[in-house]
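Q: Okay, next protein. This is Sugar (Pentulose or hexulose) kinase from Microcella alkalica. I've checked the sequence twice, so it should be correct. Can you predict the 3D structure?
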Amino acid sequence: MTANDSRARTPAAALAAGRVALGIELGSTRIKACLVDSEAPATVLATGSHEWENQLVDGVWTYDLAEVEQGIRAAYAALADDARTSHGAAPTTLAALGVSAMMHGYLAFDEHDELLVPFRTWRNTSTGAAAAELSALLGANIPLRWSIAHLHQAVLDGEEHVGRIRHLTTLAGYVHHRLTGERVLGVGDASGIFPVDAAGSDYDAELLARFDAHAAGSALAGPLHRMLPRVLPAGATAGTLTAAGAALLDPTGALEHGAPLCPPEGDAGTGMVATNAVAPRSGNVSAGTSIFAMVVLDRPLSAPHSEIDVVATPAGDPVAMVHCNNGTSELAAWVGTYRRFAELAGATTTADEAYALLLAEALEGAADAGGVLAYNQVAGEPVAQLTAGRPLVVRTPESRLTLANLMRAHVYGVFAALALGMRALHEEGVTVERMQAHGGLFRTAGVAQRLLAAALDAPVGVAGSASEGGAWGIAVLAAFTAEAAGGPATDGAPTTLADYLSTRVFADADTAVAAPDPADTAGFAAYLVQYEAGLAIERCAIDALAGGPQ
């Protein structure tokens, strides 16, 4: 490489040339922005984030859409500051950008684009009657959190707004529309609105017809497909950044409009991208406020399973998804408690330091957590048939309460409902060569990864980019669109998303793999037996302890 070539490949040069791709992801607790070199998307140039939290309002878990606007603007401003600090300049021109967000939920708009009811997130579990009715009607598992379940529940409940619905979308689709004016979704996110066809190219036409016939005579106005966003695969151009969209992201006016956008995706899809798990027989686990496992199928399942959603990769391949509403929130609350104790004792710790200390202590615990059980349900958990959240730590008098056992129980508790849901895949004979994990829980090297391998009884890999998560994943999808938009593929250029990830993004990835330790695997299996039996305690707690709808 010549000196001129070297200078041309610097981050500052990439920013000056507009050779950068931006990804924004709206997660449960943080809105994150990530900037990559569009020609070398494994290279993260800048990041920014903004913390937010859902609210329980009138029994509904929701976010105010005004906070969406404020949050994406704040995350982008933090990214621009990071770019200026690190490279001497903030982005002005983008090669491409993309938006990702929490999947599913319910955003319904009228003909004037006015929101009809507050955003109902994936966390709401009030759609049981609709989900059961639709699962029977469509012959496919329709989870409580899917958009179609929320819509049909509103129909069943006779909600006044139903007759005025003209557009339905997800959170990612909403933000994408604000940036481009286009009503589209990536196929992965679309598959959480309504089942997609076997080709992964559109909503299933036969099932749409069944739904329309079933809903005939209700207040719902018109065929369902007219209300749904258009479906696009990874690599497609899903509109361009408008002047209003650029001003929404960057009120300073420095960011220029005109950049192409990739199809908006859900956090499940970007998790697959961030872990290079989009090819058949690959899989990943994403751990955050919720936790879910995704396995790309090489054949259809033999029958529907209530624990498994059949969704799609951003390229349209079928995926078996086990989604648990509760992930690391309760563990984070306990870590915060211990941080406060350390502060009172005169020892201030950062969150990362506290996690490192406490997770390391978990490895000193008994393999079965010494008889201590931890339930992390702060919200309802359909996989475990829990209608509401009641976090609990419970043990028998014979158990041994130590910090090590308690912390191991908390980490096991994060993975326990997921392990229950994965049984259906094992019964189907679905195999996966390796699970890739990502999320902040895996920033402490080796601990959560090792215990997840025990819970799944399968090797678990964690890449160096694991903690960047979905914001990086959607930035990579944006870079893929930028390359596809550049013209006809040249010889040797990747033509599929799987090839692109393998050759352009993960070719030199530093991935650590943990094989399941037999003692840990046996210990988790013993823990899970007790955990499953103790779910009866959770159900009693739901009945006995007052709490808002979950």
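A: Here is a summary of the prediction. Residues 1-7 have pLDDT under 50 and may be disordered. The longest helix spans residues 518-544.
Q: Noted. On to the next one.
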